[in-house]
Amino acid sequence: MTELRNVEADLRRFRLRLLVVGLVMLLAFGLVATRLYILQVVRHDAYAERAETNRTAVVPIVPNRGDILDRNGVVLATNYKAYTLEITPSRAKPLEETIDAVSQVVEITPRDRKRFKRLMDDSRNFESLPIRMRLSDEEVARFAAQRYRFPGVEIKARLFRTYPLGEVGSHVIGYIGRINQAEKERLEDSDDDANYRGTDYIGKLGIESSYERMLHGTTGVEQMETSAGGHAVRKLASHPATPGDSVRLSLDINLQKLVEDLYGERRGALVALDPRNGEVLAFVSKPTYNPNLFVEGIDQETWDELNTSIAKPLLNRAIRGTYPPGSTYKPFMGLAALETGKRTPSTVVMDGGSWTFGGHTFRSGHALGPVDLKRAITLSSNVYFYQLANDMGVNAIHDFMKPLGFGQVTGIDIPGELRGVLPSTEWKRKAYKRPEQQRWYAGETISLGIGQGYNNFTMLQIAQAAAILTNNGVRHTPHFVKAHKSPAAQEFIDIPQPPGEDLGYKQEHMDVVRRGMVGVTQEGTSRRVFAGAPYLSGGKTGTAQAITIGQKGRYNAAKLAEYQRDHSLYLGFAPADNPQIVVISIVENAGFGAAAAAPLVRRVMDYWLAGIYPSEQDIAAVQRGQAGPPIGTPRTVSEMAISPPTIAP
Asked: 14: closest CA among 27, 5, 4, 2?
């Protein structure tokens, strides 16, 4: 029997299905329309920016670093362009096989591999890192012909920092090195982050570090249109980089080199200042190091050699070496005596060769008889200053010496300066843990008067104090940088310095002390060294203990290891009536001040005031510590100017 279809029911079902399909299609079109609206209207700007970003690439343009010059225009740090072979580790897979293959085309030494590994440890995986520096034209051509074989490997033209004079003045100039992870994080947290995009190097020490912002310049950008494969198609826009400023120092690099030559293989430091304005004329720390070693990344063997050497060539002794000042402290103690009223210029003390306090006898060499302040400075009477220290007390000494800069940071414009120790009762309480160590004993004050005991200062601090004394009590901040010049400027512009601060000492008191120091060069311990000088100078020899020798013991250099012998110091100024230069020098473990340190100061003053450059024979004698007045036929400063004269345009 044939089943009759319910046409009406089928029609209803069809209509229902049609309605459902229509609603689904309407919903689908609604969703598409909504999505199109969101993409094309609501999020148009964001996606347009992303599309533009995919189409373009912003490439940073690293600025040329500014030059560093001495006061006469001699270039101390500059740049040169060279080709490097670089690898992006994330794109060069497998990395070791890639390096091995590349080494068949361009020589890659084991040292290059070690440096590259160290750079990888300090860098992100997607950064381009140099594995070979300074490729020759032949090597560039050889690699370019086979470039297709090495994805992630490319040749780049880079600017390299160079220090034309090598070790000369390295502790002042400093060096640049690759930015490490800690420095990257610090830059990211600062306002300078954008300015260091694409920059791989930063100043690490010296002027390179302290004037980093001025030397670095401003990073530029290029906007490039790129293909889907990431290749540059054309330049869309460009904002050129602004090169860093060049800086001119007060340092005379010819004088600096002379002093470094005079030290020879000996250890020590010398600081020469212009007391009238605080300019640093020479700033020597020996031994030195070659800053060029650090630019490309120093190898581990060389680093270990520098870092573990007993001579400590990386130590800037002028600001980080602290020493007892020895008898060079006596002129300042004399000024303190007059200013505090503990002594008058005519007060006479009997120097019998020793002085006893609390049952303890302090040595003083041979007896000098009756001495006033001038004679006590000229003949270096220990007894006079033992008694003075006892009468003043440690805290009064501290309070007077602090404004002179002893035990204080001078504020010189290179980093790393140490404070040293200017002792006081408060200092001792903080420096020691056990109660019996924290107590100040009266006997400890006595040796402070002759620059021993807890006194420990840098050569720069002593030089600054001498500059104040010779500049009639006016204090200037020591500084290296005199002027700067932007690439667009025709001339250097002086960098303003803060005005000098008058410490308020009485002129007649300073005059008495300075006359005593002039006596040192005329009838005192340095008279032989300064015999025949074409100027009148003042000075003070000093001998500082490297180890403590008991009062009952006898100092015998022959029985001590070289590193245990006394340090030789000399402090001088000239001309006596209108000082234009103050110099402090120390020769470590060299003994009596007049024997080793004073000849160095004499040659510096001859150079600066008389234009005299010592003979080779004389330089050799100074290096041996056997010099008195200059010997041989001297030369002129002008004929001994550093050659070739690397003069900046």
From this structure: 5
pTM: 0.85
Highest averaged pLDDT of the listed ranges 59-63, 114-118, 161-165, 280-284:
280-284
- pLDDT above 90 covers a percentage of the chain that reads 58
Residue 449, CA distances (Å) to 368, 384, 397 in order? 17, 9, 9
**DSSP string for residues in 364-390:** -SS--EEE-HHHHHHTT-HHHHHHHHH
pLDDT at residue 645 in the model: 46
Tokens coding 602: 């004499």
Listed in sequence order, the residues at least 6 apart from 458 whose beta carbon sits closer than 8 Å to its beta carbon are 318, 319, 320, 321, 322, 323, 417, 418, 420
Burial class (CB in 10 A: 0-12, 13-18, 19+), 303: middle
Which of 577, 586, 585, 583 minimizes the C-alpha distance to 514? 577
209 counts as catalytic: no
CA distance 77 to 67: 5
Q: Which one is catalytic: 327, 424, 447, 526? A: 327
127-150 per-position pLDDT tens digit = 678 888 888 888 888 888 888 888
| Parallel/antiparallel/unpaired status of strands 246-249 and 68-69 | parallel
Distance in angstroms (rounded) separating the CA atoms of residues 232 and 220? 18
**Cβ pair 587, 570 in contact under 8 A:** no
Interior CA angle at 242 toward 236 and 244, to 5°? 155
